[in-house]
Design brief:
mainly beta; 0% helix; Leucine-rich repeat, LRR (right-handed beta-alpha superhelix); globular; 4-stranded parallel sheet
């Protein structure tokens, strides 16, 4: 699905019933904002680090989120990471 949306800049999946995010999310090279708040996602695919233009990632109230992708700290354009009330997330940026 994401291959047909290659020029998408904003993806708001908040409050949706999504439980898993496809690894092909990394194909959205122009994405600047990704909102997964209040979803049931448990992990964010490692391919998210390919989103060099991503500036905001909202994971607020993702109660099942267990881990964040390795390399997230190397995303130099990421200005806002919201991880408030992610109770299953043991160590956010290890």
């Amino acid at each position: 699905m994401f291959s047909t949306l290659s020029h998408l800049c904003v993806l708001d999946l908040s409050r949706s019933s999504i439980k898993r995010l496809a690894g092909t999310i990394g194909m959205l090279r122009h994405l600047r904002l990704l909102d997964l708040s209040r979803t049931d996602v448990a992990t964010v695919p490692n391919t998210i680090i390919n989103l060099h233009n991503l500036r905001r990632l909202n994971l607020e109230y993702c109660r099942y989120l267990r881990e964040l992708p390795e390399g997230l700290t190397k995303m130099i354009n990421l200005k806002r990471l919201k991880i408030y009330e992610c109770m299953s997330l043991a160590c956010p940026l290890s």
